[in-house]
Amino acid sequence: MAKTLKITMTATSSISPGLPVEPGEIERQLALLWKQTDASKSRASLLNFVIYSEAPDAIEINTPLLADLAAEHAFRALLIQANPSAPTSGMRAWITAHCHLRGAGQKEVCSEQITFHLDGSSAGRLSSVIFAHLDTDLPLCLWWQGELPEDPDPQLWAWVDRLLVDSSSWKHPARQLDIVRRIDDLGHGRCALGDLAWTRLFHLLYSMALIFDLPAARLRINRIQSIEIHHAAGHKTTALELLGWIASRFNWNLDIEETRTVFRRPDGGAVTFEILEKPGANFSISLVRANFDDGEASVKRNETGEFYLLDVSIQNNVLMSQMLPAGREEIRHILLSELSRSSRHPLYWPAIHAVEPLLSSPDL
Q1: 297 CB-side CA count, 13 A
Q2: Residue 303 phi, psi (nearest 5)
Q3: Core-most of 62, 143, 146, 358, by most CB within 10 Å?
Q4: Which residues are within 8 A (CB) of 204 and not within 5 positions of it... i.e. 6 or more apart?
Q5: Does residue 196 sit in helix, strand or coil?
Q6: Pairing of strands 270-277, 253-256
Q7: Are residues 204 and 335 in the same domain?
Q8: pTM: predicted TM-score of the whole model, two decimal places
Q9: For the chain, how big is the Rg over CA atoms in Å?
Q10: What is the DSSP string of 52-116?
Q11: What's the number of domains the chain is made of?
């Protein structure tokens, strides 16, 4: 008798990867799964969403995340946990489906998940594992958790349409960005990069742009003397990306002097900067402040994290005091933001170029 998997709506934080299957039987077992499914459920997929991780708890953490994401975005998910250093080789696989009601009286919409655990030399078969189980003709989005490989596989990266990374998790950001450039070359420019650290900044960047729409602040762009950014532990790279965005928008150039590193404004004036870690902070960036010669402009996250507080003061007179939604930083919301778009982020690389020497700093 064929093994069957009961498909249920998923709403818990602890979810099994599903039915164990032989790797060579995956597609046949999936076909049986849908053949036995009642008419109240419908399979749907808008893209292939692949997650690769070498963390030992990758399956336990990512399976409930995928179940949650499937409530708003249909996909075929391939979750791959690899242990290349394992003493023996082996491959295990599971299949499941995450089903959610999209509206009263409607069918449950289901997204497939195929999970793999690869040990030893089996981890080197990553490209084959992915390509054998893609949903044909749909885009391929790959979320690579952790450090990218030093020697990217040309066969894999020639077919990836979108690469998701989180630069805040990188120990050596400059080296990882070099690998991203090599990956882009391997894909002949087809692979669009989405950095989740950059995505976390979207609402903050909008708030900063709104401040400098104020005429009094815009007239003082060339009078900015210093920038101060406060970040949470583990988010210095995010803070530097924010600093790079400011510098690239204002046409500042990094000037590494013997005794200090500053930015140079177009008029030659120096802009100093300070990146400060705030212990216990719950959000990636809690404050960014620009100091003029006669005042300051700042965006500060409130204690609950719901709002940004925008303030501009000139000669001790408050010209702006406003609140804007801060956006959420939970990984679910960040991923949904990225999965809902297929475009590139045109301001990302200019921001990186503006601070790239700082990303190589040994004390990052």
Answers
A1: 23
A2: -65, -35
A3: 62
A4: 242, 285, 288, 299, 308, 326, 327
A5: helix
A6: unpaired
A7: yes
A8: 0.92
A9: 23
A10: EE--TTHHHHHHHHHHHHTTT---EEEEEEEETT-SS-EEEEEEEEEEEE-STTPPEEEEEEEEE
A11: 2
Asked if residue 3 belongs to a domain, the reply is no
Specify the CATH number for the domain of residue 290: 3.30.360
d(CA 328, CA 188): 34
CA-CA distance, 201 to 115, in Å (whole number)?
31
Q: How many CB atoms lie within 10 A of CB 122?
A: 22
Domain boundary among 100, 121, 138: 138
- Residue 107: inside a domain, yes or no? yes
Token pair in block for residue 278 = 């705030």
Residue 235 lies in a domain: yes
Cα(360)–Cα(364) distance, rounded to whole angstroms? Answer: 8
Same domain, 214 and 353: yes
Q: Is residue 90 part of a domain?
A: yes
Contact between 242 and 195 (Cβ < 8 Å): no
Range of the domain at 121: 19-138
Structure tokens at 192: 């669009």
pLDDT beyond 50 at 1: no
Sequence letter at residue 233 = A
Instruction: Write out pLDDT tens, residues 260-304.
Output: 999 999 999 999 999 999 988 889 999 999 999 999 999 999 999
